[in-house]
Amino acid sequence: MQPTKITPRTTAERKRDALERLGSERDIWVSTSHPDHGPHQVPLWFLWDGEAAWMCTGANSATVRNAREEPRVRLALPDALDVVLLQGEATCYPAREVPKEAAEAFAAKFGWDPRTEETPYTYLRVVPRTVRAWNGVPELRGRVVMRAGEWLG
User: Which residues does the UniProt record annotate as the domain Pyridoxamine 5'-phosphate oxidase N-terminal (predicted)?
Assistant: First the structure.
């Protein structure tokens, strides 16, 4: 495998690229942790609404249990060559209480509406406080593109 020549992007370019991926990707890795049971990581479908990531999973899943106990989570888009990591706090919404706009946008994106399922589902909403974006070692410096909930660049 040949290494790829990487030309470092500006913070504004990294922000633009991260937002484009958040708006177009389907899957995101969700990392949670429980004080007694430790870390848990799972890929979920997600919707980016312009300010938050929305995911949905079984109401009794380890992801939901962990997020209720310890809401600090990390999200990662699935590409090790074009890293986008988000950190924030998850807010849990039972499917019957999720804001209508978010639920309808999620259903439109995926062709699946968890609110109609027999088994209970929970939506997780994560507003990022920190976003890191980098493309290989040349971009490790300056990888923070959002700090304290404010986009940089």
Answer: 23-134
